[in-house]
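Run: sequence + BIS(adenosine)-5'-pentaphosphate -> complex structure.
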Amino acid sequence: MKIVMLGAPGAGKGTQAKMIAAKYQVPHISSGDIFRTNIKNGTELGKKAKEYMDQGLLVPDELTVDLVIDRVSWEDCKNGYILDGFPRTIPQAEALDAALNKDGTADSGLDFAINVDVPDENIVRRMSGRRACLKCGATYHIIYNPSKKGDICEACGDTLVLRDDDKPETVQKRLAVYHEQTQPLIDYYDGQNILKTVDGTQDMNDVFAAIIRILEA
Ligand code: AP5
Ligand code: MG
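>> structure
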């Protein structure tokens, strides 16, 4: 099962990707989480990526494409994976297709591109309440999905934080970048007949149920 999650920042891609990955026992690969781990560990890649992320801009394709394409070649991906936050530009999607088509077959092998649809008005409210664990990548919301341990991650015990790029003005920039550079992927995957759209404004368990119906139809 090879799935690409599409959707605006804060639409719930990560939330749903983790639930799908747990149910089907395939890796959840989030380019944003990979960058945040690098930032936390102070790597050169992390330093470079942070400059863009803090401004709400995309990290350049040169720093992103090889990193994710290498990750999907790992042994744990042989039965599939959930890509969350990648691809995010048409050139990234084309590079992924090319990498998956190495054997020359026409089929990229992606099964679904799931678009979690949430209008911009809902997004800023969600982001200001999000709390993230930078150690294990878990995500909470102070109202919709609070940690049972307050500001401590239930999964790994690290302290939860408001992401640097979740300030309202940065969220507005991320939304603008999304509409300009990432939204075109909806038509791209529709053209491959693998696009499925779910209403992301529902309760997160209802969004998950809608995704399961698609995957198991
Ligand atoms: P990334 O980490 O991918 O961020 P994003 O796409 O902006 O998406 P988010 O993680 O903010 O939102 P999400 O859709 O995962 O929502 P979540 O499930 O957390 O990327 C960050 C940055 O890294 C980018 O801006 C860019 O700079 C860089 N980057 C990453 N990948 C790149 C690439 N391929 N190319 C170039 N640059 C790249 O949910 C949000 C909140 O809402 C949570 O608090 C959650 O609990 C809550 N919530 C979720 N679902 C619901 C629901 N149904 N109802 C109520 N609340 C909900
Ligand atoms: Mg995310």
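>> summary
The chain is about 45% helix and 15% strand. Residues 80 and 147 are 29 Å apart (CA to CA).
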